[in-house]
TrEMBL record, chains A, B:
It comes from Limoniibacter endophyticus. The keyword Isomerase does not apply. GO terms for biological process: isoprenoid biosynthetic process. It holds the Pfam family polyprenyl_synt. Its EC number is 2.5.1.90. It catalyses: 5 isopentenyl diphosphate + (2E,6E)-farnesyl diphosphate = all-trans-octaprenyl diphosphate + 5 diphosphate. One of its GO terms (molecular function) is metal ion binding. Its cofactor is Mg(2+). It is an enzyme of class 2 (transferase). This is Octaprenyl diphosphate synthase.
Length: 338, 338
C-alpha cells in the first residue's frame, strides 16, 4: 500500500459495543443458529457461499439493534430472533450483490464470494437469502414488520441504483449524497431498530423514536465508514484503505475536498475519480488535499450531527440497560475514526 | 444462423390463449397500470431499465394465471391485480438477474438490459422490482399468499443455483433436471395459480388443484421452451435458435441425446457442451443427433405428460369460462412446438 494515515489518536476511548453484545448474547446465539439453518440447502453451493460471508467476522450490528430494541420494550417470544435474522440476511444479500456491482476483490479482508464462486453465484445466493429473509418475516406474521422491512428492501435497491446513476459525478451535492446513504445504508438500520417496538406492540411514538435512532445512526455509521476509507489500515477495516478512491466512489470526504478545492485541485479530482487515474501516489495526494481542507474532520462533524439526533431520538424513553447500550453504539461508531 | 429446422407442422392448430386474454383483459389493464406505477422512481434509471424489459412483448402469462384463477372462484376486489403484478415483477426480476448470470445479449429479440445499462443496473433494478413485489403482497395483507410467494422466491433462487451447480454436466439425470426446472420455472407458475383461490378464501382442495395445475403447466412450458431452442426461428422465439447450445446448457433434449448416444456421439457432446466448442456447424450436427434419437419428440412427450396432469388437476372443478381458458393454455404451450 505505502499509504498510512494516523487516525488512531483517541481511538482507545471508552465507547464500545460491549454492553450491546452482552445484552444480546443469548438471543444472538439463537440468531446464529437460525442463520446456519436458513442458509442451508441441499444445493451445496448455497451454504458454501452464504457461510463464506456470514462467517467472515462482521459485527452483526444490525441484528443486535433489532434484538435490543425488542428487549427494551420487554418483548417476550422469539419473533425478534427471526426478524433479526431476516435483517442480517437482507444485509448479506446486499453485500453479495454489492460486490458484483462494485467488482470488489476483498471484503472484510477476505476474498469476496464472487472471486471464489463467480458473479453468478453471488447474484443467485443473494436472491436466495433475500427470499429466505421474507419467508422468516412471513413466519413472524406481523404485517407491520413486513411492511417496514419490504419497504426497506425496495429503498435499499433504489439507493444503490441512485448511487450508480451519480457514480463518478463530482458535482454531486451533499444533499444528493445524503439521499444515497440514507437509502442504501440508513434505511436498513432504521427498519432493524423499528421492528423491535413493532413486535412488542408499542406506541407510535416509541416506534418513531427507534426508527429515528436507527436512521440517524445509519447515516453516522456510513459517513464514518467513508472517512475510514482514507485512513486506518486494511486489517482494521477489513478492506483496503483507498478502495473507494480506486473505485472512483464519490463519498463525502471527496465531495468536500472537491467543492473546497482550487481549480487545479479539481482537475486532479476529475482525473482521479472520473478518469480512474487513482494509483497509490494519487491516493497519497488525495489524502493530503483532504487534510488541507479538513474534509475528513468535517465528514466526522457531519456524522456527529446525525449521532446527536440519534441520541435525542431515544431521550424520552425510560432508562433501561438496552437504551444505554444503544446510546453507546452511537459513540462507538464515531469513535472508530477519531 | 444457417440452421433452420422445420418444427412448424401443425403449429397453426386451434389451441390459443385468446380466451384467457379476453377474460383477463380488463384486469390486465389494471395490472399494466400498476406495473408502470410501481416500476416508477425518482431515480430515472429504474423505470428506464424496468420498462425496457416490461415493454418488450412478453405474453404476461403468469399474471393472467393469477387473474383467471381468482376470477374462476368469483373473487371480488382488487387484490388479484396486486398479486398478479407482484408475480410479474418477480418474473421480471428473475429475468434481469438471469441475463447477468447467463451473460445473455438478447432477450425476446431485443438487447438485454445488461447490454445497454450494464450488469450493475440489471442486478440492482431486479432487486428493486423484487422489493416492490413484496410491498404489493404486504399491501394485500394475506399472510397465506405472502407465504406462497415468498417461498416461491426462495425456491426459484435455489433452482437457479442448482442449475449453476450442475451446469455443463452431461451426467445430469432426467430427475435432477426436473428438480431444476421445477424450482426455477414451475414454482412461480404454481404460486401464481394458487394465490387465486387463496384470496378468494376457497378450500384446501381447490387451492391444491390450482397449485398442481400451475406446477405441471410450468414443467410442460419449460420443456417445450427447451425443445424450441433446437428449432423455430429467432423471431418466433425472441431468442436465437441454439442459444442454450452455445451457452452449454444441459436441457432435456441434450440429456436424452447424450444418454442415448454412441461413445463417439458422447465425445461430440462433451466437446460442445462442456468444452464450449459450439459453433453453427456443431449446432447443425447436434440437431441431427437429436433427430436420430428422437430427443425433441420425447421431450415433447414428457411435456405432454405434465400437461395431462395439469389438465386432470382442474377436472373436479366446476365448469367456468376461466377453467376452459386455463385448460386451453396447456394445449397452447405444447402446440408452440408440435
Amino acid at each position: 500500500m505505502g499509504v498510512v494515515v494516523n487516525l488512531d489518536e483517541g481511538k482507545k476511548g471508552s465507547a464500545s459495543i460491549r454492553n450491546l453484545i452482552e445484552l444480546t448474547a443469548a438471543d444472538m446465539g439463537a440468531v446464529n443458529e437460525l442463520i446456519l439453518s436458513k442458509a442451508g440447502s441441499d444445493v451445496a453451493m448455497i451454504p458454501e457461499v452464504a457461510n463464506h460471508l456470514i462467517s467472515s467476522g462482521g459485527k452483526r450490528l444490525r441484528p443486535m439493534l433489532t434484538l435490543a430494541a425488542a428487549q427494551m420494550f420487554g418483548y417476550q417470544g422469539d419473533h425478534h430472533v427471526k426478524l433479526a435474522t431476516s435483517v442480517e440476511f437482507m444485509h448479506t444479500a446486499t453485500l453479495l450483490h454489492d460486490d458484483v456491482v462494485d467488482e470488489s476483490d476483498l471484503r472484510r479482508g477476505k476474498s469476496t464470494a464472487r472471486m471464489i464462486w463467480g458473479n453468478q453465484a453471488s447474484v443467485l445466493v443473494g436472491d436466495f437469502l433475500l427470499g429466505q429473509a421474507f419467508r422468516m418475516m412471513v413466519d413472524v406474521g406481523s404485517l407491520e414488520a413486513l411492511d417496514i422491512l419490504s419497504t426497506a428492501a425496495s429503498v435499499i435497491a433504489e439507493g444503490e441504483v441512485l448511487q450508480l446513476a451519480v457514480a463518478k459525478n463530482l458535482e454531486t451535492t451533499e444533499d444528493e449524497h445524503f439521499n444515497v446513504i440514507k437509502a442504501k445504508t440508513a434505511a436498513l438500520f432504521a427498519a432493524a431498530a423499528e421492528v423491535g417496538p413493532v413486535i412488542a406492540n408499542r406506541s407510535k411514538t416509541e416506534k418513531a423514536a427507534l426508527r429515528s435512532y436507527g436512521m440517524n445512526l445509519g447515516l453516522a455509521f456510513q459517513l464514518v465508514d467513508d472517512a475510514l476509507d482514507y485512513g486506518g489500515s486494511a486489517k482494521d477495516l477489513g478492506k483496503n484503505v483507498g478502495d473507494d478512491f480506486r473505485e472512483g466512489k464519490v463519498t463525502l470526504p471527496v465531495i468536500l475536498a472537491y467543492r473546497r478545492g482550487s481549480p487545479e485541485e479539481r482537475v486532479f479530482w476529475k482525473d482521479a475519480i472520473e478518469e480512474g487515474n487513482a494509483d497509490d501516489a494519487k491516493l497519497e495526494h488525495a489524502i493530503a488535499l483532504m487534510a488541507k481542507h479538513n474534509a475528513i474532520g468535517d465528514t466526522i462533524a457531519r456524522a456527529r450531527h446525525f449521532g446527536d439526533i440519534a441520541c435525542d431520538a431515544l431521550a424520552p424513553l425510560d432508562a433501561t440497560p438496552q437504551k444505554d447500550a444503544l446510546l453507546e453504539v452511537i459513540d462507538f461508531c464515531i469513535s472508530r475514526v477519531v
